[in-house]
Amino acid sequence: MEKEKIEKIVNKHRNEKSAILAILHEVQAEDNQLNSESLRYIARLLGVPCANVYGLATFYSAFSTEKRGKTLVRACDGISCHINGAEEVIEVLKSKLNIEMGQTTWDEAFGLEKVRCLGLCSISPNVSFNDKIYSNLNKEKILEILQTVMGDSK
Amino acid sequence: MKIKNMKDLDKAKDIGMKSLFPKRPKISISMSTCGLALGADRLFQKLTEEKEKTGIKISLHQTGCSGFCNLEPMAMVRLPGKPTLLYIQMTVEKVEQIIQDIQKKKITKKGLFCTIGSDSVSGKPDPELSEIPDYKDISPFKDQYRLLLGNCGIIDPLSVSEYVAMEGYSALYKALYQMRPEEVIKAVVESGLRGRGGAWFPTGFKWDMARKSSGDEKFVICNADEGDPGAYKDRTIMEGNPFKLFEGIVLAGYAIGSHHGIIYLREEYHHTFEFLNTAIEIAKRYGLLGKNILGSGFNFALNIVRGGGSYVCGEETALMDSLEGEVGDPRLRPPFPIEKGLWERPTIVNNVETLSNVPLIIQNGGKWYANIGTEKAKGTKILSVVGNVKHPGLYEVPLGTNLKQVIFEMAGGPFNGKSIKAVQVGSPFGIFIPADKLDITLDPEALREIGSMIGSGVIVAIDQDTCIVDILHHLLTFFVEESCGKCVPCREGVSRMEELMIEIYNGRADMKDLDILNELGETARDFSLCALGGGAPAPILNGIKDFKKDFETHIQTGKCPRFS
Amino acid sequence: MIVQLTINDKEIEAPESSTILEVARKNGIDIPTLCYHEALEPYGVCRLCIVEVSGALRKGIRISCIQNAMDGLIVNTESERVLRNRGFLFELLLARSPDSKELIDLAAKHGVYESRFYEGDTDDNCVRCGLCVRVCRDKIGAFALCFAHRGYDRMVTTDFESLSEYCIGCGTCAQICPTGAIRMKDEGEERIIYTKNGVVARFKLETCDLCGIPYAPRKYLDFIKRNSDESMAVNVARDLCPTCARRTGAIHLVGSMTM
User: Fold this and answer.
1) What are the phi and psi torsion angles at B429 (to 5°)?
2) Which are the contacts of C40, defined by CB distance < 8 A and separation ≥ 6?
3) How many Cα atoms occupy the beta-carbon half-sphere of C24 within 13 Å?
């Protein structure tokens, strides 16, 4: 991400070290990744060790040091979703997107991740496509949604 | 439009009453994360369009979720002179029908689930609605005691005046103007309130110690990380009645002498984050946060920090490390947060549900609260009942309520004629209680006696077609992925448990391996640094004891009973 | 304040501020540790230092590196429960660090010779004790190392798991590592600090002004200069290897004494 954009975000948080989580969230959201250039620059601006920032970026599930798919597909695998058929929904996602959990499609259009949990346990299984959440899913419904979403992205 | 005194509060109450009970027909759509996921925004848009198109005189509102997300999208319709009507699983067509019927002064029957309060203005039951049940007589609402969830799904969560009309902020006003901080703490101690996030620690005692800790700067942290899969009670409060939570946080600040609160919010709750930030801005505009709250001279700033997606950050010391810009590694204790917490300052960390109880305690008195529940477990508990039941959802009941009653009478029991095999109570660390042992009361003492816990109140019911080995493996995967990896017993022990469980699942183990699973579990249980590693083994070790048959099937045949 | 406690039936007096581990070691009682070092704050993660207590505390197992001595405390460092659990912890550690001679010897000393959990895969021999990260952070101040990822995958590494520009090449991490997972090697004019996962840092060694042998990286020498009192160090103005520095210092000292 361009240095000016990073500076703007860091300045917004008054260059405070304790705001690093919020800063990483914003850079991740904007750039869809936290690559080494961005992280090193953030570390420099905040005056924190580079190694620490790398530790943060790899500890938290919300962050990715590699470029994520443009559409991040998060399949909830909490206990309620699991009991109500999340496994089948996840199999369809893996097969249709042709990637394993944690991977990104070759054209960077989609990334697939597990999440626990979205807090929608009485309407499980749930999957989110970036910020759009679909609930009460089963094999057929997720297939239909994928066909629409993948069709749109062409 | 700051509320600076009792007169302002009364004025807000009047506005709120008019908003809650307008003279014209009123339609409220619940627009929490769940409603939105099920299309509530389209309904609201349709209603707005119809209103503009037809010029129909109706009052359109938004509410939060009541906790029964599978009944969403919900619409509450209040026709003048009639009891409030609750419509469930609404669609655009059904909503169009309601508009048409309102114009014809008819009551729409399609989608009508129940009334909320069966008496009309005359005080007698309405003959037009004689066959419609009232919410307090039917599942899933009956037998609940909705102290905390009472406003959720009823009021506009972003309306200060509606909350004030429902007695909101009367507790904070009373505390800031008529009580000393020590008296606030005394009331909380008297109430017997204990932590609702899982630790069950006496809240008043914690606040008292924090008040007595030396230091000019103290912090109130609201733990809104809600990491237990199956739990969404905190989300419901935050999206349904955020001002109640804020009121509780400010009361906590006043009690311990803190002027700064932080809500540590779960990363996965994207909508809730935006929503709460809006609510904070509104509260500031009304003088309910920031400087000179309610004109009392007491200042308290509140901000929200999003977590990074890590279950272990729900543990209070890991949470504080996370707030300080570090990874979420649990700290050694002592020192305890009340002495040296966030930035080494005295800090209290309380759950959303715990803090939401406080306004009620201050308003009605500690003794009033202590009359609810049992001898040793006071107040209500919000239970998140999920899994194989007819009516999954949030059930708020007095502590001491019978588990069997909750599962079979309130939540409707299993669906499709199946039978319940077991119920996991409390949290992912709760044991699976076999079906024949469900006749117990939901209070920490009774639960502890059978090796269970009240936890955050998650209740997972599994039916006869579920396999315990599959569920326990699923749980272990969760623990392994969420472990911070700092201490040996959890990082190495629980990981080896998961490896062994995979072997068991695939029929590549033998019965002796169950002994090794036990040894690993005991080591993690007894020597882990925090409650993640310490709690992970419990459901596994109990599962081996109580559901040996599922284990035998896997070990002997390599096949899962689910697919037989 | 001085307290009186009993360790393995031996009555001992000790300051209240000391930990059971410190008291035991001062009195020649051996308790194994991996993540403990006198120069650093206790970390309490390896759990090898468990002891069984009773008396002043409720009977149970405590972590001796963080448990303070108490008046009337009775400690048993070799009870049946302690030996069983400690042995199990060694098994878990050996599975993770199968090639570490130091760990194998330590485990053997405590009666553990193999691990049921070892599946034949070679790992990096790191027990995640954090000593290297902590010493680099808290004592040296170079902040070259960190823990990355979490859970079983938690690992000691540099920023971006690449060659570190913050490492000063002092080798304290290699010296403090209890399992040999992180090592330092001087070969010719080059020093490398490395783990099984890769090279942490690479340096050219400066040569001694007097005898000409390659002996330390420039960054390390600069660090010493920055942190030394000028009057104390003989090698501030010149680059001197330890041997030459000692000799020069001795000459100066004798010289100043005979003046």
Assistant:
1) -90, 0
2) C131, C134, C135, C138, C139
3) 26
Complex ipTM: 0.96
Task: Mention every residue, 6+ apart, whose C-beta is less than 8 A from residue C226.
Answer: none
At residue C252, the 3 state secondary structure works out as: helix
Instruction: Decide: helix, strand or coil at residue B469.
Output: helix
Any chain C CB within 8 A of the CB of B503? no
Residue B293 reports pLDDT greater than 80: yes
Phi, psi of B358 (to 5 degrees): -65, -45
Tokens for B124? 């007698």
Among the partner residues B38, B387, B484, nearest to A135 by beta-carbon distance: B38
Strand partners, C7: C10, C75
Q: Which long-range contacts (CB under 8 A, 24 or more apart) does A7-14 make?
A: A7/A45, A10/A42, A10/A45, A10/A46
Report the distance separating Cα B263 and Cα C133, nearest Å: 31
Beta-bridge partner residues of B28: B61, B76
Q: For residues C94 and B496, what is the distance between their CA atoms, to the nearest angstrom?
A: 13
- State how far the Cα of B130 lies from the Cα of C19, in Å rounded to an integer: 74
Whether the CB-CB separation of B139 and B389 falls below 8 Å is answered with: no
pTM of the model: 0.94
All residues at 6 or more sequence positions from C247 whose CB lies less than 8 Å from its CB, including other chains:
none
Peptide bond before residue C217 is cis, with ω within 30 degrees of 0: no
Sheet holding A110-115, edge to edge: A110-115, A71-76, A127-129, A132-134
Interface contact C173, partner B, CB < 8 A: no
- Summarised one tens digit per residue, pLDDT across range B47-103 is 999 999 999 999 999 999 999 999 999 999 999 888 899 999 999 999 999 999 999
C-alpha B96/C-alpha C31 separation (Å) is: 76
Burial class of A85 by CB neighbour count within 10 A (0 to 12, 13 to 18, 19+):
middle
Max CA separation in chain C (angstroms) = 69
Share of chain B above pLDDT 90, in %: 92
Q: Which residues of A lie inside 8 Å of B (Cβ-Cβ)?
A: 17-22, 24-25, 48, 52, 55-56, 59-63, 77-84, 115-124, 126, 131, 133-136
Question: Both tokens of residue B108?
Answer: 């729409």
Identify whether the C-beta of residue B26 lies closer than 8 Å to the C-beta of residue B61. Answer: yes
- Compute the distance between CA of residue B33 and CA of residue B455 in angstroms, rounded to an integer: 24
Residues of A in contact with C144 (CB under 8 A): 51
Give which of B551, B531, B529 is closest to B540, Cα–Cα: B551
Pick from C47, C96, C147: CB nearest B489: C47
Residue C137 contacts B, CB cutoff 8 Å: no
DSSP reduced 3-state for A50: helix
- Residue C218: pLDDT above 70? yes
Which are the contacts of B18, defined by CB distance < 8 A and separation ≥ 6?
A: none
Query: Does the beta carbon of C194 lie under 8 angstroms from any beta carbon of chain A?
Result: no
Q: How many CB atoms lie within 10 A of CB A29?
A: 10
